[in-house]
Write a structure and sequence with these properties.
The chain is α/β, with parallel strands linked by helices. The protein has ten helices and eight strands. Strands 1-2-3-4-5-6-7-8 form an eight-stranded parallel sheet, sandwiched between helices. It is globular.
Amino acid sequence: MTIDFSCTIGPWAFRRLQVTTVEGTHKALRREGIDRAVVSSLPAVLYKNPHAGNEALCEEIGPASRFFIPFAVLNPSFPGWREDLRRCAKDLGMKGLRLYPNYQRFSLRSRETKALVRAAAELGWVTCVSVRLEDERFHHWAMKAKPTPVAQIAQLALDIPDAAIVLSGGSHPDLQAFFRAVSDAPNAHAELGWVKSPLEAVKTCVEQFGAERLLLGTSFPFDVPWCGTEKITRADIPEEAKRAIMGGNAGRLLGN
């Protein structure tokens, strides 16, 4: 089974995206042979209360969808996140957590952030932490969001070993810094959606970090899904490693 670990749905305030709907996203990902997708609300990134985006996403997906695996976007600095987390799990049936510290201006070092990640881990959830959503050169001049410091994501993984942490939106140098910092910590993972260079970057990642902690990511709709899948299927790595990255590792993390 092929599982995309980095996908968002909805409009983006600063850029017109070609696909913003559940139906369009499903069609685009299935076209590339993707069987399931971890998905979160894109508008929730910029909402003062991101939970409104979680509710809208789940309403649009519907309870019967087997393709999408909804992850909650929550801000630990926003009052009421504990109740929002409860609703995401109990009422909406969400399956994981996605954090955007750089856009929502909270610290990964804060007591509340660590409490949220621990609470997510108690639910059996994976926590994805976004380094970036799009190339910083494309940012609107009124909304410059610096990348989330990789060292802080690594420290979060080390501080909460019971929580499965996935670095999302990281470049090849970001992944190098992350895995160097976490060493062999088994709870630290990274999706490859933003690994775009150097040549044979995926092969280098497998050689440097091992395939067992790497995940397929398309970064859709900011990038085309084809780039996410082809960089893995065409990489000069063992077939076993390809299968693990394309879905085996994700299935294990998600308990599938």
